[in-house]
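The record is kept unedited without comment:

——
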Amino acid sequence: MDFKQIDYLLEIRRTMSMNRAASSLRVSQPTLSYQLRRIESEVGFEIFRRTGRSLEITPAGDQFCAQLSAMRTEMRKVIEQCQNIGGGFKESIRIGLPARSALRLLPDAIRRLSGEHPEVLVTPVFHPYDDFSKFLAGDTDMEFIEMGSMSGFPGAREEHLYYSGIYLIVRDDDPLASKPMIREEDLSGRRLMVGGGSPPQLVTVQDRVIADANVGYYNSHDHDTTLINVAAGSGVCLSPGFLRGDDPGYRWVPFDCPERFDCGICVREREERPPVIRFMEILKKVYSEYDGPL
């Protein structure tokens, strides 16, 4: 299969119509049908079942298209990055992080590096929190981490960047939104969103608040689901400051507790490329000079 055939297949999956897919792809319907038969003959299983004028995707076809879609997305990223390198950049640094806010000073660090090394391209790679599979596979050169989280992986070197506090997320029209600091007693009678892969330190704080402050709780699957529930007025949420976004309608208020997150960056112990080492130094300097909330 080539890229064009993959695109044909994914467009048929999207539209679930040979006619609409052919129109979108600007090919004739007989050409698209012929290509689909070739693909199915090559892979050895039926992807779409034709029932009169309608199409029905088979279970195998559904799984196949899902995998192809993910692969095509990654391939586009690789092609775009290589085009950037071919367009004048001589070296690339890929840095993994769970959210833009985890390294909110990253743009400043990139600007400083570009001033010294205009030939170096820095590319953020976003992935789920605490998922270091891309780094371990060699797909990223650096990773945002909580200090200590890579201690079990030989050959990884951690460097501290900053400490992040815990915040309460509320609707911006919530009475708690006007407070400069939230204390446990302020949450009495409230419902707290918990779960969703919360870091251990945050779980400790959540458990203490629920036990001591007459607070109910509601299990939420992930951070985005939690934010939707907060916006809907279903509850409030405690969150690490390094996930603090700029979404309208929410207020992040500092929460009074001793726990905080030691945030850093990780590279491979054997990393010797001067731009990578220099970028580490710049990141540390940028954060050491910053005195705002994190």
Q: What stands out?
A: The longest strand covers residues 156-164. The chain has three domains: 3-76, 88-163+262-289, 166-254. The mean pLDDT is 89.
